[in-house]
Write a structure and sequence with these properties.
The complex is a heterotetramer, with two copies of chain A (333 residues) and two copies of chain B (334 residues). Chain A has 333 residues and is α/β, with parallel strands linked by helices. Chain A has helices spanning 9-23, 37-40, 50-54, 66-77, 97-104, 107-110, 140-144, 157-169, 216-230, 249-259, 275-286, 308-314, 318-332, and strands at residues 4-8, 27-31, 59-61, 82-86, 120-125, 150-152, 174-179, 186-190, 202-205, 210-214, 236-240, 243-245, 262-269, 295-299. Classes of the chains: A alpha/beta (333), B alpha/beta (334). The structure holds thiamine diphosphate (2 copies) and magnesium ion (2 copies).
């Protein structure tokens, strides 16, 4: 058996769940359609086969009760279990903000350290499939704004597996947001056990001219743009934070100190999105090194429209990134 | 669309006592819905419909029976499976189809698509991508009607899967407490995606949940358009006269997959075949023909007319341009 | 704290058949709760208690009757009105009082205060500032117990005002569906702030709402500690043996205001006076004395002892230092 | 009768509600304890007397059902009414995010302009009273991140009345967040009808040295600090945006172009808070004019603790502002 294979992001997540469930009997899964749907689990196949392997008790199909599912997971986590909840779409997070924000994030703190809430809330972000306003939101910034939660957003199959295993082993509530368009992307992933620590960014492509911070679908667009612009001798350094809480700001700041220019690209709505947080932290640590304004290339400030002709102008494109970078260079270099 | 002199007296499951034209129109509307949703696999496979769209084939009697018991000014809220509800309430299939294809002439200008089909001009307050999302909106519409004294009734369609959403308790309680003019129509089509009601719901008799909220209710055969019409007519009359909300569980079956990608491994061909015997359209058709209200020829003609209407709608939709990208910045604020 | 050989047989409302020591301990615990909450106005007026704290005076029989039916390893979740529940489950009044005063020796290190009082060492999973917030946590604790096979029962206290929170439907449905070892104890103290149950709840018989969720239930006199103890003991035994969740409405009365600032204009002195006749503490005391289980002298001694305990707790709390500001950065992550 | 009086923020809000209800019969109120509590309505007295004046039908005490109340208001707004909902504490917003974010904010857009949702969701923000983790949150940034909503946050009685009247007349969903510590502060308010447009900031104190952006409780701290520092010849220009959506960025940018320094102070948790949005918009428009890093003085990244000794270090104080400003000057002037 090979010590690495080409597998999808969805399969990588599936392996992480399987391995952690085998490793720790307190790990169990809760969610809608995670046991039977699609011939064995999960609208995006992430839990496929796990019900058969671990039983319906540990891979528990739930009613359509998002607030209740998350609340139940919190109670289970506070009493010795390690639940992993799946919310089918990140757009359903608004249904579960009460238990997530008022309970999971706060129990340990407000009880003076008495509680441990080791749970993972898996859901997703991302648009592009014509799923329209209620199935396309990227709400990670809300989570980042809540002390007591951690937040991971894997961009590749390798990271998806390594970060999920770490999240499950973490003794705190971790919100784990996958990207809808990445579930069936492939990468070589080792077979042996590995984990990726939360809070360690990855420099996906080194470059000396401009630092670009992006994750998930936007990361892949940034990398494509970097390849194109390299042909013109423009070298982008593309950084994937991997987790927004904890945030590896040092890697970003160190990069900006070298490139002196920063572009932040996220799919989430621009207004009050997390680009502002990265920008402030860079300003606080490296203002002197900035030779140009920090640039945002982000989702437009409207709900996601259905029609392709509209969706295309709302989601940041490679062209948007390229023109923003060209303008940055034209104006400031 | 509405049986003017409907009253409890005429509410028997016999055809006589009901206007023949209404009974025939029920058939036509059900056929129109079926013809419309029968296009979904084709258009999706052709890549003309994006995202996911949900067919209500097999459930036409619920949509038509319920909406025909309403006045044009009454309100309806729907679910992710909302084409039938919209057509039953009087929606224009051309603008609906254009919406499914994301075109400029769509009823939502291409911004909503299948899951957000809506037509406020006929009181159809929208399909909803959030399971249970329509319940609150319908309750609010009923409160609005009560405060304005407009006598409008709000009918809320939702699937049996929505029975476990907390919003049902919160809004059901308010509706009962305030005696709002509302009908909660729960379409129990036996599935929530791959899940059976018994796998996720603690009670088998769904009206019992409504009873815990102070809302009376009953079960009705959701494949019998007249039975649905009668039950909803009673509930609507009751609601309109200040009697408060009423819950109806319409028992039916989802003939197709949850959506196109559904492999349907979780149910048997035999089960489907058994339910096909209760197919609301041929059964209603035969009943009308047997009773002499409709001739075979008329039935065939109506079927053809509805298919033509849908084909024209598809043509219309295909002709309609994609929305101008600049319109993405419109309709955010009034 | 627990009646070892409790069983349906001994569950009569007669004193005999119950261990006298247990019956007397019930009185002591109720007196301790009353003494504790009687300090709130004083300490709040002195500015020693910040924010709002909620007294459960008049409801002691519910807290004690319910918690005495539990094993030490069982779980309890509480509400914003959680002092009594915590003391009944075995909480230490010194650390509790220190928490109310926001001191370093508080059970939550001064971070929680009255509304977030908690003691995980005795299975008390916390008061909660969100009405209905404890329901989900208790359901999760019950699921955890079921999966671990630990036979622990989770008892969830909530007020009748929480009956209209959607989380009750969502978690109640799951608890019934999965037959979780859980007791839903609804303290109907007649008020949600200034609101009467009938003003906001569509049904008068609260167990009926549970029934709609597939959970059996009953009403019990919440001012009779033995009646509560018996009802909860049955529910706990049932839950522990795999019988699933049970709902109990304990009918009682909130003697004080919702919190100190409450002007109580919304209720009459006569109503209060009538309920004072059902005061759980003197009634229980008299009953024990009449039956010879307790002497007048003992009763007086116990009352004094509980007051002394609370006075010492207040002293202890006042002596305890305010938390070091640096501890604000601790306890966020494990 | 005088044409102006000294009244509280709470009374000013009460007048706005009374006047708009008298003016427009479609305006009605929904909320918990708004009719009877405290001798006539509202935990903070905002609805006092209105039930008596307009009846329990139009001043409707609701069950404790936050999600339901907001959902019902949306349905009523979409069918011709102008509901004004009160959520007793802003910490209960997480219970109502589904209808607010997936429905209210999106109905008009996803239905292609068919819907009008003229509703106001009144709630509050702010800590300082020892109300601890679940009654002290300032969650305005979440709202700012949601296209389709408007967001007003009055800092004074005069603004409270004028902005609420505008919000009620607006044809869109407006989230109106009051501040708990301001309800009983007083100001002179005219008796005659007036409104304040959404999207017009107020320069609360002109100054040439440093621009400070703050609202509500933090605004008052900033003004006190400005007075103190003025004695040392340091002139702060204090700007109150009044509404975050729409945001009057022009007034802020124009100020920064003069002062060349910007400090943003909010009580909300710093991480991913709205300071980052203001900072980015200033960078996008006036990077060249910034002589120093933009400085944040914001709530610390922990839940609100109960004890005064802890609360004091979590909520930004005047001292925090002063030392931040002194450091800014020491390092950059
Ligand atoms: C709040 C929410 N949770 C989950 C989903 C995903 N989902 C879409 S349809 C569906 C099943 C709904 O079943 P039912 O209510 O019976 O309606 P049906 O599909 O049978 O018409 C689910 C789980 C959703 N859209 N919204
Ligand atoms: C979700 C939520 N909504 C509103 C409140 C404000 N509030 C605190 S206690 C209370 C009344 C609760 O009544 P009940 O559940 O009967 O408990 P009781 O106070 O009678 O013990 C309300 C409305 C809250 N804390 N949480
Ligand atoms: Mg269904
Ligand atoms: Mg109560």
């Amino acid at each position: 058996m090979p010590d690495e294979r080409l597998i999808t992001y969805s399969a990588a997540l599936n392996e992480a769940l399987r391995e952690e469930m085998a490793r720790d009997s307190t790990v169990f899964l809760l969610g809608e359609e995670i046991g039977v749907w699609g011939g064995g689990g999960g609208v995006f196949g992430v839990t496929r086969g796990l019900a058969k392997e671990f039983g319906r008790e540990r891979v528990r199909d739930t009613p359509i009760s998002e607030e209740g599912i998350v609340a139940v997971a919190i109670g289970a986590a506070a009493t010795g279990m390690r639940p992993v909840v799946e919310l089918m779409y990140g757009d359903f997070l608004p249904l579960a903000m009460e238990p997530l924000v008022n309970q999971a994030a706060k129990l340990r703190y407000m009880f003076g350290g008495q509680a441990r809430v080791p749970m993972v809330l898996r859901s997703n972000v991302g648009a592009g499939g014509g799923k329209a306003a209620q199935h396309s939101q990227s709400l990670e910034t809300w989570i980042m704004h809540v002390p007591g939660l951690k937040l991971a957003m894997p961009s590749t199959p390798y990271d998806a597996k390594g970060l999920l295993k770490t999240a499950i082993r973490d003794d705190n509530p971790v919100v784990f947001l996958e990207h809808k368009l990445l579930y069936f992307t492939k990468e070589v992933v080792p077979t042996e056990d590995y984990t990726i620590p939360l809070g360690v960014a990855s420099i996906r492509r080194p470059g000396k001219d401009i630092t670009v911070v992006a994750m998930q679908a936007m990361l892949h667009k940034a990398l494509a743009v970097a390849t194109k612009l390299a042909e013109e001798g423009i070298e982008l350094e593309v950084i994937d934070p991997r987790t927004l809480v904890p945030l590896d700001i040092d890697t970003i700041v160190e990069s900006v100190r070298r490139t002196n220019r920063l572009v932040i690209c996220h799919e989430a709505v621009e207004r009050a999105g997390w680009a502002g947080e990265i920008a402030m932290q860079v300003i606080e640590r490296a203002f002197d090194f900035l030779d140009a304004p920090i640039v945002r290339v982000c989702g437009k400030n409207v709900p996601m429209p259905y029609s392709a002709s509209l969706e295309n102008v709302v989601i940041p494109t490679e062209e948007d990134l390229i023109s923003a970078i060209r303008q940055l260079i034209a104006t400031w270099c | 669309m509405v049986n003017k002199n409907d009253s409890a007296r005429t509410r028997n499951n016999q055809l006589k006592g009901h206007e023949p034209t209404l009974l025939v129109e029920m058939l036509r509307r059900m056929m129109l819905i079926r013809a419309f949703d029968s296009q979904l696999p084709i258009l999706s496979t052709q890549g003309l419909i994006r995202g996911s769209s949900h067919a209500c084939i097999g459930q036409e009697a619920t949509a038509v029976g319920a909406c025909f018991a309403l006045q044009p000014s009454d309100y309806v809220t729907s679910t992710h499976r909302g084409h039938g509800h919209t057509i039953a309430k009087g929606g224009n299939v051309r603008f609906m189809m254009a919406e499914l294809l994301g075109r400029a002439d769509g009823c939502c200008r291409g911004k909503g698509g299948s899951m957000h089909i809506a037509d406020f001009s006929i009181g159809m307050l929208g399909a909803n991508g959030i399971v249970g999302g329509g319940i609150g909106i319908a309750t609010g519409a009923a409160l609005s009607s009560a405060i304005r004294g407009s006598k409008q009734v709000a009918l809320c369609f939702f699937g049996e899967g929505a029975i476990n959403q907390g919003i049902l308790l919160e809004c059901g309680n308010m509706a009962a407490l305030w005696k709002l003019p509302m009908v909660l129509l729960c379409e129990n089509n036996q599935f929530s995606m791959s899940t059976r009601p018994d796998d996720v719901t603690s009670i088998q008799d769904l009206p019992r949940r409504a009873s815990g909220l102070g809302i009376p209710g009953l079960k009705v055969d959701g494949t019998d358009v007249l039975a649905v019409f009668n039950a909803v007519s009673d509930a609507v009359e009751r609601a309109r006269n200040g009697g408060g909300p009423f819950f109806i569980e319409a028992v039916c079956y989802r003939f197709e997959g949850h959506f196109l990608a559904d492999d349907l491994k979780y149910r048997s061909k035999d089960e489907l075949a058994a339910w096909h015997l209760k197919d609301p359209i041929p059964n209603w058709r035969d009943r009308l023909v047997k009773s002499g209200i409709l001739t075979e020829q008329d039935a065939i003609r109506i079927a053809r007319e509805t298919e033509d209407a849908v084909n024209h709608a598809v043509e219309f939709a295909k002709q309609s341009p994609l929305p101008n990208p600049a319109t993405a910045w419109e309709d955010l604020y009034a």
